[in-house]
Amino acid sequence: MGEHSHTRTTTKRTEQSLVFAVNGERFELFQVDPSTTLLEFLRCQTSFKSPKLGCGEGGCGACVVLLSKYDPFLDKVEDFTVSSCLTLLCSVNGCSITTAEGIGNSKDGFHPIQERFSGFHASQCGYCTPGMCVSLYSALVNANKSDRPEPRPGFSKLTVPEAEKSIAGNLCRCTGYRPIVDACKTFATDVDMEDLGLNSFWRKGECDEVKLRRLPPYSHGNGTCVFPEFLKNKTKAGFNMESEACYWYSPVSLQQLQRLLQMDDANNETSRKIVVSNTGMGYYKELIRFNKYIDLRYIPELSIIKKDHTGIEIGAAVTISKAIETLKEANEPQFSQEGKLVFKKLADHMEKIASGFLRNSASIGGNLMMAQRKHFPSDIATILLSVDAMVDILTDQRQESIMLEEFLGRPPLDSKSVLLAIKIPCWRLSVDISSQGYTKLLFETYRAAPHPIGNALPYMNSAFLAEVSLSKAGIMLNHCRLTFGAYGTKHAIRARNVEEFLSAKFLNTSVLYEAIKILEITVVPEDGTSHPAYRLSLAIGFLFDFLYPLLENPSEISSFWSDGDNKALPFSDFKGKQDSNQLDQTKFSTLLSSAKQVVQLSEEYNPVGEPIKKVGATLQASGEAVYVDDIPSPSNCLHGAFIYSTEPLAWVKDIEFKPGSSLDGVIKLISSKDIPGENIGAQTRFGSEPLYADELTECAGQRIALVVADTQRNADMAANLAVIDYDKENLDPILSVEEAFERCSFFEVPSSLYPEQVGDFYKGMAEADHQIHSAEIKLGSQYYFYMETQAALAVPDEDNCMIVYSSSQCPELAHGTIAKCLGVPGHNVRVITRRVGGGFGGKSIKAMPVSTACALAAYKLQRPVRMYVNRQTDMIMAGGRHPMKITYSVGFKGNGKITALRLDILIDAGISVDISPLLPNHMFCSLRKYDWGALAFDIKVCKTNRPSRSSMRAPGEVQGSFIAEAIIENVASILSLDVDSVRSINLHKYESLELFFKSSAGEPLEYTLPSIWNKLGTSSSFYHRVEILKQFNRCNKWRKRGISRVPIVHEVTLKATPGKVSILSDGSIVVEVGGIELGQGLWTKVKQMTAYALSLIQCGGIDELLEKVRVIQTDTLSLIQGGSTSGSTTSESSCEAVRRCCDILVERLTAFKERLVEQMGSIKWETLILQAYNSSVNLSAISLYVPDSSSLSYLNYGAAVSEAKSQKLIPNNEDVTLQVEIDVLTGQTTILQTDIVYDCGQSLNPAVDLGQIEGAFVQGIGFFMLEEYPTNSKGLVTAEGTWTYKIPTVDTIPKQFNVEILNSGHHKHPSGEPPLTLAVSVHCAIRAAIKEAREQLHSWGGDESSSTFKLEVPAIMPVVKELCGLDSVQRFLQWTIGS
């Protein structure tokens, strides 16, 4: 892009201007609010909207940009990614910023990265895609600058592992990551093209040469970031600004820094912030304003990297990434081999901290200061403590060097104290090797966290350094350093009593056992720490993993060490051979193995059925796709933020703000008193909920008021400063389903929606050989975690009208809600939705209050009002998936055949009805996948004083699927039968199918589930893998594997959907549908259907129709009766509506064409349309597709997951096979392989359906494995954004993810929800692995049952470890000693 100068001037005194570049454009600012982030500037003051606000804490990658700095002394440019949501604008002086638009765009041409993301179907909602592309681009730029050998033509110097890890810190909620990784790997020089999945560039079986030729061409020039010449003359010194209101200083010496601190002390300065990167703000949110910032990056003593024979000194302002690079490259001759090993392992551990774009800016000193002052659970503090690191600090005008241990143990340093540098010593052997036999220095670090390669705080971190000697008498531990951190303590500690016990002792099992006993009283988590017993067990497991391999095979160690080769430290190599060393969670050289995607293609209805690229995917990759928050703010636009209740039931007496707080930019507080119409914020056919609590707030998280301010940040900050005065006297909230049951607090379920019971339960129980009574299951909630949070923009229009841009799945319902709230006719309101950055049901009902609140504020103030709900507030208000309690009784035969099942289910609906009355029917649909003999139930929808729950992908169905499998698992465990055989014997026969599904069962020959079950067993090598797994579990103590095969029958409901097709005079085609593009490919499928249906006119040029079709945004005044985009069926319904419109147009044009052909001979499309236009042929058609009764009752079967929901019966039977591995010492689960076979009926676009299948399954992995959505005792959500709420990442998906799509030819089956229910197979496989661990534990002594146990949802690491035995190490050692 060309150079432009953007200048901001002011009359206030300044010392220096802030100069930087964005995508080549020059910006010069003279006055800046020092708290402004780079993201705020980019989105509010430039045209570049690709960096998105996803979390505001550096945890999602949506805001990632490339930052380039020029070093005039080395004459080179350093390029690295940063989180623009945390990077302060004043810190980018002299830097060049590159966003996704700067990499490539529609005007200047797209970059191969963006084209390959599109061609590999790696973008669905697209909100995360620009950040992904920038992350990969940075990896390419830096790899190509390396001195590695030149790559093959068409490739970069990037390796496959680097390509995979380049996006490891970026979150995606839609795709399931596999296609994203494939797009990244296309640039890797060592990629095997056969490993790459389905794409739009080549077909299966083509040779590598053809594949490479068809890829968008890439050369080194594509991977070179050009640094603007006008910035190279910019001095290296930082930016300095001083005005009446705010200051930014960049001192260049310690003396300048001391003067600034002294000046503040003299002025009693309290609003000062010392910064290096500002990344700490992502964890410790700022609730006050600072008016003075001091940037430490330009002080030489804080940026130094110095190496000598004593070790490495690293300045406190050095970034973690730079520290990692320094430690990895520590190959100087003055360093001992032992020292080099320590440095390398420190670096390896640091690479697991946070994500790359945070490590690139976060400083090593900042991390340690947070640990010292605020007790941040730092990995760096723990690992450096183990190697006797020292720190230099500046306190009270004096400089001192102290041990890191003393530094951490001091009282929190005051704001005038500054950490200057860290000194890491170079370790050497402390004894004479010749006198002590063979002596080695051993060093290992450990970390247990939900995500293996970073972006997650640890449950526990540890580092152990030990010097051991081998002699004929045995292995002596000469001395050691044992450190533990992040376990619920103020700071990392050294376990000195354990160290003293072990020092100078010969190691044996008894000594190790005694050391562990001492450790048990040393590592004591503080009160209030989550999972304290688990954290202690981790400490024990880590120490065991470190020392026990020395004892397990002493003869092998002796022979290994006696070869006299001292050039390397063999302990790590030896440990790698041992089963017990399983705690290195990055042991896979690549994150993912090659996967198989099998699709059946047909050209019969071309382009329908073709795996074409998703419409707009390349625009999404370049960041040019427009979401609601990307719409430029109209003039005088205001911003809103909700004030919500923190009490579950209370009278609201008053709203004030914290005394002395600065309410900058606040315009007005809007509450229920300002509503001119009804107090309504959302509505469904079952009822409505208020926009704001009137006087009584009925749940924590309920909206009470809206702060309206001049910026979103000012609005959010003011909302955080709100203090609500409550009166809770004589109010008793209902906070559990048990309380709701006791107080008969229920929502009514219409009889038409309540499912019918099947068979005679009491008769079935009488026939049973065995019975289980009143077993309980509890299921929690799940947060949507759409990458784009709730967003809306309301703009007052003429004649008392209101235009609202909403990120909504059902604009029609939002339209009606807004009109009622404002008290205006429906034609005075227009709701427009172009695209949504992820929905999953959360943008259906829950989006309405946001749109309505903006419309009300705009109506009252007669100014545009917009809102982008921050992640924490969104999590508190979202509600999410329905929690429930299930009590069941089941009868069964000795062979596992179930004869009767009764379920008593209490569903927590929260305070408002929402769509909760649909849950019983949805659950019943999913439960019917097995023949229960007789099925009885009592399902109650409970009204509680918690946030209302809403529809979330496969609502009720995912819970129903889990309940069914939990019952099957319990029956199998009671009978000590193989669970797969119990599943098999309870699959429907045709007779039971008719009983459970009635008329929708179809003909006997149509029932193919048993054959599909057997087919999957063969195609996935299920039985062979079971035998291999048994052998593996026999040979491995500390790793156990489990495998599970699960079927599912899913019912689909289609609903009425409108469509409109218009042909313009030039032959281009405009399509409108009621459905919303959420990332599910709705526009793509509609475009394909339109092109096919209009091609039936049979004239010249119809092969090019696909490129002539444009699907446009939804407008509630242009196309009515749009309904809700939900249930994963709207794409297919919209296609049918469009097809009917096209049929009308084809009928009109065919007769006209025949007349023209008689006159002109052959005719081309453009000519036909122009002639029809001039002859006043109606070239627009509208249709409302309403499913007829014949399509409401049929079954379809397939071996995999199949789409479904609501009320049209299209049950699809699917199977999935899955294999997992658990680490018995930590509870870490790795999904080794997943095989899914899915029947799409007639897939409209196999590539889109494949993406839906994989994405839904991975979202299900989150529900069953990772995602905790906790609340406090008042029902207020306590999950803190990306720090504590962990959705799946690229390192937690199946290592091998095989999907086969079948086209049975029966109907067009959606693909977004059934795969999610199939993710229960992950949970079942984990359970199978735990069962193996428990059997082993039982063999070591103990009375607990090895087979009968409950595995909670989600099966997070502490849960898995507890079931494997928190004391498994102690019991193993006791057993070993005893035997």
How is the CATH topology of the largest domain named? Aldehyde Oxidoreductase, domain 3
- Total helices: the number is 45
Low-pLDDT residue intervals, each spanning 5 or more residues: 1-14, 564-588, 1193-1211
Q: Please indicate the percent range of residues in DSSP E strands (runs of 2 or more).
A: 15-25%
Overall structural domain count: 4
For the largest beta sheet, what order do the strands appear in spatially? 24-28-22-35-32-33-34-43
Largest sheet: 8 strands, mixed
Q: Do you know the CATH architecture of the largest domain?
A: Alpha-Beta Complex
Q: How would the global form be characterised?
A: globular
CATH first level of the largest domain: which class? Alpha Beta
Structural class: alpha+beta
C-alpha end-to-end distance: 75 Å
Helix content: 25-40%
Describe the structure.
The structure is a single chain. This protein has 45 helices and 48 strands. It is an alpha+beta fold and 1379 residues long. The strands form 10 sheets. It has an 8-stranded mixed sheet, with helices on both faces. The protein has a 6-stranded mixed sheet with strand order 1-3-2-6-4-5. Strands 21, 39, 45, 46, 47 and 48 form a 6-stranded mixed sheet that branches.
Chart the SSEs and their pairings:
Elements: E1 5-8, E2 18-22, E3 25-29, H1 38-45, E4 64-71, E5 76-83, E6 96-98, H2 100-103, H3 112-119, H4 129-144, H5 160-165, H6 178-185, H7 208-214, H8 229-232, E7 241-242, E8 247-249, H9 254-266, E9 272-275, E10 292-295, H10 300-303, E11 305-308, E12 311-315, H11 320-328, H12 337-350, H13 356-359, H14 364-374, H15 379-385, E13 390-395, E14 398-403, H16 404-409, E15 418-425, E16 438-448, E17 460-471, E18 474-485, E19 493-494, H17 496-502, E20 505-506, H18 509-520, H19 532-547, H20 549-552, H21 554-561, H22 570-577, E21 597-598, H23 617-622, E22 638-644, E23 650-657, E24 666-670, E25 682-684, E26 687-689, E27 696-697, E28 703-709, H24 712-720, E29 722-727, H25 737-742, E30 746-747, H26 761-767, E31 770-779, E32 791-797, E33 801-806, H27 811-822, E34 829-833, H28 848-861, E35 865-868, H29 871-877, E36 884-892, E37 898-910, H30 919-927, E38 935-943, H31 957-975, H32 979-985, H33 990-997, H34 1009-1019, H35 1022-1035, E39 1039-1050, E40 1057-1063, E41 1069-1073, H36 1082-1095, H37 1105-1108, E42 1109-1111, E43 1114-1115, ...
Parallel strand pairs: 1-3, 2-6, 8-10, 9-10, 21-48, 22-35, 33-34, 37-38, 41-42, 45-46, 47-48
Antiparallel strand pairs: 2-3, 4-5, 4-6, 7-8, 11-12, 12-15, 13-14, 13-15, 16-17, 17-18, 18-19, 18-20, 22-28, 23-27, 23-29, 24-28, 25-26, 30-38, 31-36, 32-33, 32-35, 34-43, 36-37, 39-46, 40-41, 40-44, 46-47
Keywords: 2Fe-2S, Abscisic acid biosynthesis, Auxin biosynthesis, FAD, Flavoprotein, Iron, Iron-sulfur, Metal-binding, Molybdenum, NAD, Oxidoreductase
Binding site for Mo-molybdopterin: 809, 840, 953, 1127
Domain 2Fe-2S ferredoxin-type: 16-103
